[in-house]
Amino acid sequence: MIKSDHYQYQDIRDAVRALCAEYPDEYHRKVDEQRAYPEAFVDALTRAGWLAALIPQEYGGSGLGLSEASVIMEEINRSGGNSGACHGQMYNMGTLLRHGSPAQKALYLPKIASGEWRLQSMGVTEPSTGTDTTRIKTTAVKRGDRYVVNGQKVWISRVQHSDWMILLARTTALADVKKKSEGMSIFMVDLRQAERSGMTVRPIPNMVNHETNELFFENLEIPEENLIGEEGRGFKYILDGLNAERTLIAAECIGDGYWFLDRVTKYVNERIVFGRPIGQNQGVQFPIADAYIEVEAANLMRYKACELFDAGQPCGAQANMAKYLAAKASWEAANACIQFHGGFGFANEYDVERKFRETRLYQVAPISTNLIYSFIAEHVLGLPRSF
Ligand SMILES: Cc1cc2nc3c(=O)[nH]c(=O)nc-3n(C[C@H](O)[C@H](O)[C@H](O)COP(=O)(O)OP(=O)(O)OC[C@H]3O[C@@H](n4cnc5c(N)ncnc54)[C@H](O)[C@@H]3O)c2cc1C
After folding, report:
1. CA–CA dist 53, 150 (Å, integer)
2. Nearest residue by C-alpha to atom 4 in ligand 1
3. What separation in Å is there between the alpha carbon of 133 and the centre of ligand 1?
4. pLDDT (tens digit per residue) in 213-237
5. CA-to-CA distance for 208 and 158, rounded, in angstroms?
6. Which residues lie below 8 Å from residue 379, measured CB to CB, with a gap of 6+?
7. From the CB of 94, is ligand 1 less than 6 Å away?
8. Which residues are catalytic?
């Protein structure tokens, strides 16, 4: 393995690596080829308690900080796996933890911690509104002790491998609120029950082996006790969870970045062309060195974001910058890796093309690079709002 100056939390790394080693390249390759879900891998991570890292001990989790949680995600990706199959279970519950009632926390969190209930899904994006979330058209209308939901979502991940989903819907029409960010609410949706009573799931075949779906709601009824926090404040609650999500995804990209760098440095040392290792050519060395520098720099920002988050300090800028730097660095490492594997980079058995596809996603989702630029420009640098 290539060196990093930031190998903190070695005990966690060793333990996660040992578990991941039981699921080698062949396992992930086969799951990818079959467009299947890595059930056994995710089960093992759940049983070992890794996905409950951020749940406080009083609810059965391990009560670790974001730094430790990020190391878990990094190691999963560095092992050749893809945290995208399970990261929702780690961070979606943060919304419940921060904004749920004591009764909701007591009901859900211990079962999420044990893995009995999976809260892998978060339903925000809609086909006709995209990034402009405040214009969502899915509505939840109060009728007696229930909310009745109608509308549509797109790109909602892991619905088929989750028991619950946090759903964002408009409870007050956009025209009737003072600020466009008001009037939306979030709900716990029992997915299996919903499938029987008003929610239709249509899987979206896509470039990566990522289970994601279109959802259609037709008079889906949700009990009022499933509303999280106050009605109308759901958008703010979702935003509150984004810093943890961004930072954890940055760590996944960093894991990917090191994976690509491990693979490519080994390959270019061994591959002989023109009578010498290809890694002896500066044209080969420099893009790899460049990617390593970028991954290391992203890593510093990731730890900065974690430190601030764990200290309860504002960390929006650092979480977004970490996600930006890490997604870019892992993509550059991916490009160097596939380039210097030559034709073999395209062969499934080398796993490079699989990881290449997987890491590309992170410049688009869960937030696109442009929206990070926009956040930094407007919220950090004080430039005029563009939307
Ligand atoms: C595999 C996958 C899994 C996903 N999982 C989930 C999930 O579980 N839950 C969920 O709610 N969503 C999920 N998403 C949705 C994801 O968050 C969105 O795709 C993403 O936020 C971008 O939204 P959009 O696709 O509608 O793009 P659009 O909003 O249509 O934007 C398209 C492009 O235009 C750019 N753009 C748009 N507006 C501006 C602007 N003002 N300035 C500059 N550039 C702009 C964007 O940066 C983007 O590159 C997932 C997406 C994918 C691909």
Report:
1. 35
2. 155
3. 10
4. 999 999 999 999 999 999 999 999 9
5. 13
6. 316, 317
7. no
8. 245
User: Under DSSP, is residue 336 helix (H, G, I), strand (E, B) or coil?
Assistant: helix
**Which atom of ligand 1 is found nearest the CA of 125?**
11
What per-residue confidence (pLDDT) applies to 3?
74
- Inform me whether the pLDDT recorded for 29 exceeds 70: yes
Cα of 366 to ligand 1 centre, how many Å? Answer: 7
Mutating to test ligand 1, I would choose from 252, 363, 368 the residue with most ligand atoms within 8 A of its C-beta, which is 368
- Report the C-alpha gap between 274 and 292 in whole angstroms: 26
Q: Name, in order, each residue with C-beta under 8 angstroms of 325's C-beta and a sequence gap of 6 or more.
A: 250, 294, 297, 298, 301
pLDDT tens digits for range 300-340: 999 999 999 999 999 999 999 999 999 999 999 999 999 99
Distance 60 CA to ligand 1 centre (A): 34
Q: Is 340 helix (H, G, I), strand (E, B) or coil?
A: helix
**Does ligand 1 lie within 6 Å of residue 84's CB atom?**
no
Does 157 sit in the ligand 1 pocket, CB within 6 Å?
Answer: yes
Average pLDDT for the chain: 97
Write down the pLDDT at residue 356: 98
Q: How confident is the model at residue 5 (pLDDT cuts 50, 70, 90)?
A: low
The answer to whether the CB of 213 is under 6 A from ligand 1 is: no
274 CB less than 6 Å from ligand 1?
A: no
Confidence of residue 6 (pLDDT cuts 50, 70, 90): low
- Our mutation pick for probing the ligand 1 site, out of 86, 131, 207, counting the most ligand atoms within 8 A of Cβ, is 131
Give CA–CA dist 339/351, Å, rounded: 14
- If we measure between CA atoms, which residue out of 386, 338, 328 comes closest to residue 360? 328
Confidence of residue 8 (pLDDT cuts 50, 70, 90): confident
Average pLDDT (64-90) is 98
Q: Probe ligand 1: pick from 364, 374, 376, max atoms within 8 Å of CB?
A: 364
The CA radius of gyration of the chain, in Å to the nearest whole number, is 21
Is residue 333 packed enough to be buried (19+ CB in 10 Å), middle (13-18) or exposed (0-12)? buried
- pTM across the whole model: 0.97
